[in-house]
Write a structure and sequence with these properties.
Layout lengths: L1 E2 L14 E2 L3 E6 L5 H14 L4 E5 L4 H8 L6 H6 L3 E5 L8 H6 L20 H15 L3 E5 L11 H15 L5 E7 L8 H5 L2 E10 L2 E11 L9 E6 L2 E7 L2
Parallel strand pairs: 3-7, 3-8, 4-5, 4-6, 6-7
Antiparallel strand pairs: 1-2, 8-9, 9-10, 10-11
Helix pairs in contact: 5-6
């Protein structure tokens, strides 16, 4: 079953949309359109009755809602109808609180920096919170922003890779069509999530013929014939629009 993304022009590149209940990675540098893609994907589903969840580890949900409300996606209405949900899974401790406490406590007390309230959550914590939302609200579309902000419990690269692989394998069992946003400035630097996901899409933002240009490229799409060339991307009043082949 194909899931239309709501991104004008994109579905033509991937045989009509994403395959249902699979995990996709959307990578790119800042300003390339990742957040807009994610919210547009959820809003399209919400408009046809599919509950969508935007789980953010980086930005305050209200800021995302405010920014995305500039597009004609009916974000506020969908949020009020509980068809579009936003969950803040990032560090909850206000900046400065633990710093002030640590000025009065010695390391002998062994508290402070290990507080889960002041650190980015681990893959297991993120999964458990998301799974609870999915179960309670019967979420069908999921966006996680971003996997780059997840805190790993080990500094060992090989263990981090196993941890991320386990995280993605568990996401696949949720029954959602999932888009993982991922920060990337070097298109040749692949991470574990790129290999573990069913599909990988790159968003580009670069200087082209003396003009800053945004583009999109489908790198990998299991079970789907896809166009792997770069296509230019523009921002319209409705959100992202994929246009012609970028020579």
């Amino acid at each position: 079953m194909r899931i239309p993304t709501g991104i004008e022009g994109f579905d033509d590149l991937v045989q009509g949309g994403f395959l249902s209940e699979r995990v996709y990675v959307l990578s790119g540098p800042p300003g390339s359109g990742k957040t807009t893609f994610g919210v547009q994907f959820l809003a399209q589903g919400a408009a046809i009755g599919e509950v969508g969840l935007y789980a953010t580890l980086l930005e305050c949900p209200q800021n995302i809602i405010n920014d995305m409300s500039n597009y004609a996606m009916n974000i506020i209405t969908l949020v009020k109808m509980k068809k579009l949900l936003f969950a803040d899974l990032g560090p909850r401790m206000e900046y400065g609180y633990m710093d002030e406490i640590n000025e009065f406590l010695t390391t002998d007390y062994n508290i402070g920096k290990s507080s889960s309230e002041s650190e980015a959550p681990s893959p297991s914590v993120v999964f458990k919170e998301i799974a609870a939302y999915v179960s309670e609200y019967e979420v069908k579309r999921l966006v996680i922003d971003s996997v780059s902000a997840i805190r790993f419990t080990s500094k060992d690269i090989s263990l981090q890779e196993k941890e991320m692989s386990r995280f993605i394998r568990n996401l696949k069992k949720l029954g959602c069509t999932t888009v993982l946003l991922s920060e990337m400035t070097d298109p040749s630097a692949y991470s574990t999530e790129h290999f573990a996901a069913h599909g990988v899409v790159f968003m580009h933002n670069f200087l082209y013929d003396k003009t800053m240009t945004r583009a999109i490229q489908v790198i990998k799409m299991r079970g789907t014939k896809h166009d792997c060339n770069m296509h230019s991307v523009s921002f319209t009043e409705k959100g992202l629009k994929v246009e012609g082949y970028l020579e």
